[in-house]
Amino acid sequence: MVVDDNPRFAAAAQRYLGKLNVTVTYVNDYVSAVNELSRYGSDSGLISDVLFPYRASSSDTELGRRTIYKMMREDVREQHAQSLMRGLAKHGVDTMNDAEMQSLVRAWRRQSPRRNRRPIMDEVVALNERGFSTTEHLRTLLRRKFGQYRDGYAALLRAVDDGAHNQPLCIPLGEQADRMGIPFVIATSTNYKNPVTKPVFDYVGRMHRDYVQHGDPAKWLIVSCERGYDGLKRKDKFWYRANNALSMQLPRKHAPNGRRHLVTVSS
Asked: Which of 40, 52, 107, 202 is deepest in the core (most CB within 10 A)?
């Protein structure tokens, strides 16, 4: 399955895959993709983009938001950041409905060792005991140190706010394919340093490592572009890489009609 909301990337996929001995189905949203997957077995394959809509021409973002929060819950670094936020709340620091403070605390937790956090925590505790506003004081301190930090979860949530086509639905779609035993690859024009898609790269990386530990290194693969070269996804060599990653997982035998069936999603 190739999930892509860029018509030029979709055309590139069709151009390359059309040269191969495969039957290709194109759909343009999550709902259609799941419906198509239900028709095929393990001798089929899926190439999916990272971000795409739940349903074409729909503003429904519920599944995308649930997916982001699921990724956050399963991210150990995010668990540590949430623990720090709860500790700060005991000393008057309010991060609950403050997206900037959440991003700053994530940066603080991820980029500062415990011994470097201790003096600031002591200062927050002392200020709270004296009745001062600890939230704004900590905000000022963290802005100086981490004002340039690019918080991936915040960026991804903002992207979903900007448009329903920016939902990371490759995650639930990939999980559905995984449960059905259908090989799949995630193919994106972005890269690990893009803050919007970085949480997805992190999640896919964790899933891939889990499979590697269990002796199956071909699962949960992601094909990306180098920074500044998103146009590579319009080239045959990108789709060669994506198809090659998928072929590592496909069984040697073909489907009953003598051709592998490849489901591609393109919005």
From this structure: 52
Phi, psi angles (nearest 5°) of residue 141: -65, -45
DSSP 3-state of 180: helix
Tell me the two tokens of residue 253: 């035998």
Average pLDDT, the chain: 87
Residue 224 CA to residue 226 CA, distance in Å, equals: 7
Contact assessment for residue 185 and residue 219, using Cβ atoms and an 8 Å cutoff = no
Whole-angstrom Cα distance, residue 245 to residue 143? Answer: 42
By CB atoms closer than 10 A (0-12, 13-18, 19+), residue 178 is middle
pLDDT of residue 259: 41
The answer to whether the pTM exceeds 0.90 is no
Q: How many CA atoms lie within 13 A of 214 on its CB side?
A: 8
Q: How far is residue 154's CA from residue 162's CA, in Å, rounded to a whole number?
A: 12
CB-based burial, 108-135: b 16+ in 10 Å, e otherwise: bbeeeeeeeeeebbeebeebbeeeeebb
Choice between 218 and 110, residue whose per-residue pLDDT is larger: 110
CA distance 249 to 109: 38
Closest CA to 21 of 263, 265, 254: 254
Give me the amino acid identity at 8: R
pLDDT in tens, 9-21: 888 998 998 888 7
